[in-house]
Amino acid sequence: MSEIGRPLTVPALQAMKSRGEKIAALTAYDACFASVMDAAGVDMILVGDSLGMVIQGHESTLPVTLEQVIYHAASVRRGAAGPLLVVDLPFMTYASIQQAQESAARLVREAGAQMVKLEGGRHRVDVVRALAVQDIPVCAHLGLLPQSIHRLGAYKVQGRDDRSAQRLLEEAILLQDAGASLLVLECVPALLANEITAALAIPTIGIGAGPGCDGQVLVSYDMLGLTPRCPTFCRNFLEEAAGIGEAFSLYVRAVREQRFPASEHSY
Ligand code: KIV
After folding, report:
1. Cβ distance 10 to 204 under 8 Å?
2. Residue 110 CB neighbours (<10 A)
3. Residues of the chain with pLDDT > 90: what percent?
4. Which atom of ligand 1 sits closest to the CA of residue 146?
5. Short-list 84, 175, 183, CA closest to 131
6. Where are the domains of the chain?
């Protein structure tokens, strides 16, 4: 059991990294799932724009709007007071500093977000700084960037060669120095994620980034086996449980005890 009290705060997440306590995060999109996650001891809930794929049935996250994210995040907040609430800024809602500040302010005011998440590296540094100086905590997101799917061409592992690995490490430091409070690393080799985690003072949260990150996040519908294909980096926790609440508890325990992710879930 975590020694950190609830409701969880941004400084509490930082304290978990300092104490070497792993952070267990899941995505949620509604009050009912969120309350079951709260009872299971999930530390952080991400209202991800993955909702475009798992809730709305789109091929990508790109169609998701700010209004839709606010609707889902406000529902999650009503269902769960304990976990830290991180909410995604959808595609093209942070294209300028002013737009980012207005969008993020709506997530905080209307949805109860404690932190906002945005995708991208060095070209997002000014936006991260502009939010951080307004005391809006920011979670940066590097590696596989679903909002960049048309540039990337496919959902695939990033940072495999030395040059792109070095670029990701540099960008992680730039984002931290600009004021990011947290960093999601999606689909990067485990050794690179270890290096980034060791170089940063802020916590890293991995998804397909190996066991060395300070915490883990999964799309809840993936780890319950509800999506058609369980990604390589995922595990179906419902297969091992009597119900959804127990599946969430098993996940929290496996992350805390560093039994998930295992080597077969890593690149
Ligand atoms: O949208 C989302 O759910 C995410 C996670 C996959 C990290 O960004």
Report:
1. no
2. 16
3. 97
4. 8
5. 175
6. 10-265
Identify which of 26, 56, 219 to mutate to test ligand 1's pocket (most ligand atoms within 8 A of the CB): 219
Verdict on whether the full-model pTM lies above 0.85 = yes
Pairing of strands 44-47, 204-207: unpaired
pLDDT for the residue 230: 86
Band (pLDDT 50/70/90 cuts) for residue 3 is low
- The token pair at 40 is 């299971």
Neighbours of 100 (CB within 10 A): 24
CB of 216 sitting under 6 A from ligand 1: no
Long-range residue pairs from 204-208, CB within 8 A, at least 24 positions apart, any chain: 204/172, 205/23, 205/25, 205/44, 205/139, 206/261, 207/233, 208/143, 208/144, 208/157, 208/232, 208/233, 208/265, 208/266, 208/267
**49 backbone dihedrals φ, ψ, rounded to 5°:** -75, 0
Burial of 158 (0-12, 13-18, 19+ CB in 10 A): buried
pLDDT one-digit tens code per residue, 102-140:
999 999 999 999 999 999 999 999 999 999 999 999 999
CATH class of 10-265: alpha beta
Query: Which region holds residue 172: left if phi is over 0, alpha if psi is between -120 and 50, else beta?
Result: alpha
The H or E element that residue 139 is part of is strand 138-143
Neighbouring C-beta atoms of residue 87, cutoff 10 Å: 30
Active site residue ranges: 186
**Among 88, 107, 185, 220, which residue has the most ligand 1 atoms within 8 Å of its CB, making it the best to mutate?**
88
Give yes or no for residue 204 CB within 6 A of ligand 1: no
